[in-house]
C-alpha cells in the first residue's frame, strides 16, 4: 500500500520548472508522479549528503532535487534543471 504523499514546491523549484521546455516539464511531471506513488521515494533517488537531499536523474541533463519527510509524509521539491541549476554549481 502506498503512502499518501503531499507535495510541496519551493519558490526556486517553481521558477526553474517554468523555464523548462514542455518535454522537460513532462519528464518532471512523470518523475513527480513516480515519487508520489512510491512507498519510499528515497529509494528512487541518490542521497546527496552534503545537501541532505535526494537527486532524481532524468537522463544525462535533467535533475530533480527533493526531500521526503517521512514523519509528515510531505515530499518537498527543491530544485529542478540541468546540473548547474539543480546543484547551484557547474
Q: What does it look like?
A:
By secondary structure, the protein is α+β, with helices and mostly antiparallel strands. It has one domain: RelE-like (YaeB-like fold, 2-Layer Sandwich). The chain has three helices and five strands, in the order E-H-H-E-E-E-E-H. It has a five-stranded mixed β-sheet. Strand 4 and strand 5 form a beta hairpin. The radius of gyration is 12 Å and the shape is globular.
Question: Distance between termini?
Answer: 39 Å
Helix percentage range: 25-40%
Number of contiguous helices:
3
Major beta sheet, strand line-up = 1-5-4-3-2
Looking at CATH, which topology would you report?
A: YaeB-like fold
What would CATH call the class?
Alpha Beta
Strand content: 25-35%
Structural class: alpha+beta
Mean pLDDT level:
92
Using brief descriptors, characterize the structure shown.
90 residues; five-stranded mixed sheet; single chain; alpha+beta; YaeB-like fold
Give a concise summary.
The chain has helices spanning 11-19, 22-37, 83-87, and strands spanning 6-9, 46-48, 53-58, 62-69, 74-81. The protein has 90 residues and is α+β, with helices and mostly antiparallel strands. It has a single domain (19-87), classed as RelE-like (YaeB-like fold, 2-Layer Sandwich).
